[in-house]
Amino acid sequence: MDIKTFAELIDWTRQLHAHLAHCLDKGIGENQEERAKLLLAYLSNHEAEMERMVAQFEQQADQKAMRTYVYDYLSHQPIKISQPCEIPFGKLGFDDICQEVFSLHEQMIELYRTLSSKAEIPEARGLLESLLEMEEHEVMRLATQTGRMSDL
Asked: Residues of 80-115 as b/e, b for ≥16 C-beta within 10 angstroms?
């Protein structure tokens, strides 16, 4: 996706969470391990919730920030994050599923952290910091919940 504005970045983030939710859900029917199926179901629901959270950012964000161009912050290079459905969730075990999902989230966190450090407009910096905070909080929540599931 060619992302030029913060509005497009947020929409891309929302779509990525929705796509990840779909891929995780698809893996439930393909995976033979019961514990992995439970994890996939939990993660799929969590990603769908994150999609809704990001959609709220789209609706409530400052319009000046939303129209700000991201292009310069990205050094004219497209965003490259692994495509979720390229990951064979239906064949992975519990730990490998966790590793893949956390890797995707860490890539998004690093993207927001980098963009936030380069943002010159206060509204854009605030928007990025809010998105970064949400992603970091949700990753911590995922880590806690998957840790509990791992203990079972």
From this structure: eeeebeebebbebebeebbebbeebbeebbebbeeb
For 78-100, what is each residue's pLDDT tens digit? 566 667 688 899 999 999 999 99
How long a stretch of residues is the chain? 152
Whether the Cβ atoms of residue 138 and residue 50 lie closer than 8 Å to each other: yes
Q: Which residue has the tokens 């730990």?
A: 95
Interior CA angle at 79 toward 78 and 82, to 5°? 130
User: Residue 102 and residue 110: Cα distance in Å, rounded?
Assistant: 12
Domain ranges of the chain: 6-151
Nearest to 25 by CA among 35, 16, 38: 38
At the topology level, CATH places domain 6-151 in Ferritin (1.20.1260)
Task: Give the per-residue pLDDT at 76.
Answer: 47
Asked if 102 contacts 72 with a C-beta cutoff of 8 angstroms, the reply is no
Supply the pTM of this predicted model.
Answer: 0.88
Q: Which tokens in the block code for residue 101?
A: 């999902």
Q: Could you report the per-residue pLDDT of 30-39, keeping only the tens digit for each? A: 999 999 999 9
